[in-house]
């Protein structure tokens, strides 16, 4: 889908992906080695009561799922940014994540007639349909 | 440092990290396989004129550097969210990134006297001191 194909309220859903404890620890060892992401015992003693995924891990998996849905990929010119990322519930080993996307704004470029911005709200849900995180993404898309 | 040790305007700098082409492609293959992140030829033909790092890769490297600076790690209770992530310039193979952090807000918790929120603005800079990205992070920290 290209810029012109989107309107406010358009929705899509991604596939899903499960996270193992090993994957949570491996990602966090490199990018976010806080004790509650990499150390099972320290995590059990923390306010989280057990290992939880790095919030950055949750975001990157969500983005992997969003690209896998292949909704706007062909028209993508990248993204200038994200807004209001909020982590609402911990993601734990064995959880299965999926994402719903909804268009909240559609802005043709004032200066460049070949492109526009579509703003998506992405809700990241677990296998209990609980919201674990959400964010808004500004997506630069080619026009038809 | 604990919540009580921070005031608005407090600044710190991280170490630096270089990104190879292989690292850029490996990260993007898993999390962000858009052509301009994983395919040298497609990237050359894109608006970016060559391979660029996934914005999520830039963010995770920045966070790795921030944790490496070990400023608030001991007091960390995690983060509820990030605001206004903006990618300003492409990050290319061979670039070296570093981060400057500055406290923009300090908010003791109203309901829980053992903690507070510190908001940091993080600027991600390359080896030419160009701003490649910035964001605001809400950091939950224990009080002394």
Total DSSP E strands of chain A = 5
Tell me what portion of residues of chain A adopts beta-strand conformation: 35-45%
Helix content of chain A: 25-40%
Supply the number of helical segments of chain A: 4
**Overall residue-averaged pLDDT value of chain A:** 96
- Note the gap between the termini of chain A: 9 Å
Greatest chain-chain contact: A-B, 29 and 29 residues
Low-confidence parts of chain A: none
Q: What's the quaternary structure here?
A: homodimer
Order of helices and strands of chain A: EHHHHEEEE
What class do helices, strands and sheet pairing of chain A give?
A: alpha+beta
Offer a quick outline of the entry.
2 copies of one chain form a homodimer. Chain A is α+β, with helices and mostly antiparallel strands and 144 residues long.
Distinctive features:
homodimer; 144 residues; alpha+beta; five-stranded antiparallel sheet; 4 helices; 5 strands; 25% helix; elongated
Please write out the topology:
The structure is a homodimer of 144-residue chains.
Chain A: E1 11-18, H1 21-31, H2 35-38, H3 40-45, H4 55-69, E2 81-87, E3 96-108, E4 115-125, E5 131-142
Antiparallel strand pairs in A: 1-3, 2-5, 3-4, 4-5
